Amino acid sequence: MKKNHLFLLLSLFFSFTYSQKNNRFVDSIRIKYNIPEVTYAVVSADSILEISALGNKRIGTDLKADLSDKFRLGSITKTVTSYIAAVLVKEGKINWDTKFFDLYPELKSKSNSDIDFTLKDFITFRAHIPTWSYGNETPTQKEIKGNDQQQRYEFMAWFFKQNKIISEKQDVYWSNPSYVAAGLMLEKATGKSYETLVKELGKNLNIDFGLVSQM
Hints:
- The protein has 215 residues and is mainly alpha-helical.
- It folds into two domains: 2-55, no CATH class; 77-214, Beta-lactamase, CATH 3.40.710.
- It contains seven helices and two strands.
- It has helices spanning 2-32, 77-90, 100-103, 119-123, 148-162, 177-190, 194-205; strands at 37-43, 48-55.
- It has a two-stranded antiparallel ribbon.
- The longest helix is centred in the first third of the chain and has 31 residues, at 2-32.
């Protein structure tokens, strides 16, 4: 019995020491980069081993960080889109090898003839398309009109028409339009907007993703 108590005490001691070490390390990063608040967690497959909130809610205040504080997570669109795609594939509403132009045949004749990629290609960045990001000057806002769903469609119609595939072999082809294309495929397969799909996922997982347009 004494051995069990000793083992428990030692386990608690080392766990506390490990936690304090993590706290100091994470807080040093927060201070170095002038970040007001940071929350971190150490998890296993089935439990939360350690979780902590450090710093203040706002710069220049004494409002201490709290685990109930909410953070805006930027650029999670790829994660969410991949998850939705996997769910829809499992439900049989679309396949990984479904090709973009199988769902949008009207765009094929207007696009580069070499572009013929699958949902899996787009999700895994294996589609040989050029890099494009939000800093690009084209297309202009005047060229891409309509609501969010219509703008996604118009953008990909423009992108596939303007760009040729990359002939040079690469391990991955990083390009944001891959996920715009994947999102369009999920919309066509379900008859629902991407925003609706995200809201439904959030409801099922009890997660509030906030403004989908800013993900």
